[in-house]
Amino acid sequence: MSVASTDAAGITGTPPPSLAVVIVNWNGRDHLPECIGSLLADGYDPLRIVVVDNASTDGSVQFCRDAFPSVEIVGSDRNRLWAGGNNLGLRHLRATGGADFTLLLNNDTVVPQGGLGLLVGAAAREPTAWAATPRICFADEPWRIWYDGGRVGRYTGWVGHQGIRQAAGRRPLDERFVEYGTGCALLLSRRALETLPELDEAYTFYGEDTDYCLRLRAAGGRILHVPRSLILHKVSASVGAWSPRKAYLRSRSHIRLLRNHWQGAARAALWPCQAIYFAGHACWHLWQGRPEVARAVLAGALDELAGRPAEPPVSARV
């Protein structure tokens, strides 16, 4: 379904909705100047920025205090990963009054000026939207899309980004409802957070955002995609695009997601499709000369199916 698109941040003559941005950080000091600086330069008001630091050892906390004194810092005693870090931020906001909208944002992102107003304004004008997503492009290739809406296969279980690696200029700019939003930049309404206050921390890596969106939709909410709002993402800056660890943990989380959300008749076609997917994925990595990644793809799925414990990841998000 498409909805009308407009560039206005809100209804003329009324103040814009309040916005809080939660950024989870683990040893990402080098990313913070661009990320936080772009949020402040956007000029959105009223704006709160909350940095949740997952026990960094690179001076991130002191840097934020010195460089961005208006930023609220929530410190963790350990690396709680992406879901746990965001939950700390959300609890902090609940305890301090919150905001009309809350944006979960990766620390390795840059927000071009005007992007926040376009995203919040579109969500505020659409009463059925409990969440909203911007268009996300590769930071090193701003003309190329990384996320332009999310698709979830009802029977196949295939979860993917729409428009990935396509030229942004060839994609439509109409707002539309999508099936899930990436946690790289996920805007949540107050109603969404009242209904589903937190992310599921049982996902070791990846899948938390898709799980949240599927639960949101099951509760009656919708996810609005706003392509005119743009965010740039330094994709896989933490461990590299084809890390075996990343492949292993992604496989584990994907199997957990399938078990949690595909029930009854929907499972009839699910597992054959997934067997083909995992086999094809592993074969493709072998063809590309990445045998360790191919093994990790299969090992992650098999370990999750068998209930074996996962090795903790080294980063909060990749």
What do these coordinates show?
- With 318 residues, this protein is α/β, with parallel strands linked by helices.
- The protein folds into 2 domains: 2-233, Spore Coat Polysaccharide Biosynthesis Protein SpsA, Chain A (Alpha-Beta Complex); 244-306.
- The protein has 9 helices and 13 strands.
- It has helices at 32-42, 60-67, 81-95, 115-125, 190-195, 208-218, 244-261, 267-287, 291-306; strands at residues 2-3, 19-25, 47-53, 72-75, 101-106, 109-110, 129-138, 141-147, 150-152, 159-161, 175-178, 185-189, 222-233.
- The strands form 2 sheets. Strands 1, 2, 3, 4, 5, 6, 7, 8, 11, 12 and 13 form an 11-stranded mixed sheet that branches. A two-stranded antiparallel ribbon has the order 9-10.
- The radius of gyration is 19 Å and the shape is globular.
- The two termini are 31 Å apart.
- Mean pLDDT is 90; it is low at 1-9.
Sum this structure up briefly.
The protein is α/β, with parallel strands linked by helices and 318 residues long. It has 9 helices and 13 strands. β7 (129-138) and β8 (141-147) form a beta hairpin.
